[in-house]
Amino acid sequence: MQIYEYSGEEYEHIAGEFSIPLIARTGPDFRGRSAVQKLGGALTLYRSHFRGPISAVRTNRMAARASADNGMLFCLQEMVCHGYMRQRGRSAELVAGTGILIEARSPSERTSQSEARLLTLHFSRELLPLRTTEITDACARSADSAAPATRMLSGYLGRLLDLADDLTASQRLDAGRAAIELLTMVLRNVAPSVPGGDGPEDVLLDMMRTHVREHLADPELRVEELARRHHVSVRHAYRLFTRVGTTPAAYLREQRLLAAQAMLSDPRHARLRLSHIAAAVGFLDIRTFERAFRRQYGMTPCGWRREHCPSRAAPRT
């Protein structure tokens, strides 16, 4: 285990070394301390204690240049004196006992006002046995501190950090993989919930969102068609999607671009033409696809593929 103690000016360097690069804004009296334990296999566990206000920002440019390992952070809030986490247009309040998933490939901001202590698992996105959309939907959403899975993971990570130095390298790796299995249990309960329970409109909204994810390749799927297929008006469709903080058009576009992003990062699709990828997620016009992708991720599809597909074999564009 390695121990780091740092001032606000040193925090950016420390974060870039054992976590993900970011821009930090701290008060003049800020002090930080982190205990870092590498578990092996792209898994790192650390506990950090911040004294003083801090804002940690990951910009669009930083997110666009995320390394090919697709780094993820799951942060368990052991103590927080007022703070929040923002990513993908969502804002989650940092409350003691809760856990929040963060992805390196999207801009984010984490703020705490006075003091915070958190336990963080840093891992590669590929280790999670979940679909890309499930992982993205779980980002910046609070895992219930009272949920059994969250409590199990919190206790497990705390004990693992304390005992990891007594384990062999292979035991640490096995223990890290067990942590990922527990995290998977947690994240399956963090799927976006609809305020108000399980009423008929909540069920309808879930059906519409599922329909979008399962029919991304259908170029006819637009807001009007989505509403028609579910026998509601366009106005009512918009009203339903406000319950999860978005619009049907924005949700459809986000899911299509997420699917394209995953294909561009996958070596199995390295030789697939961009026009074929665009069509596979419902874009008939390649220029429309490129504009939308650049607006969302700050770079072109070709640029994303170059940076995030290490097994790329001269793909045709």
From TrEMBL:
It comes from the Bacteria. Residues 206-307 form the HTH araC/xylS-type domain. Pfam families: HTH_18 (PF12833). InterPro entries: AraC_XylS_family_regulators (IPR050204), Homeodomain-like_sf (IPR009057), HTH_AraC (IPR018060). Keywords: DNA-binding, Transcription, Transcription regulation. This is Helix-turn-helix domain-containing protein. It comes from Pseudonocardia alaniniphila.
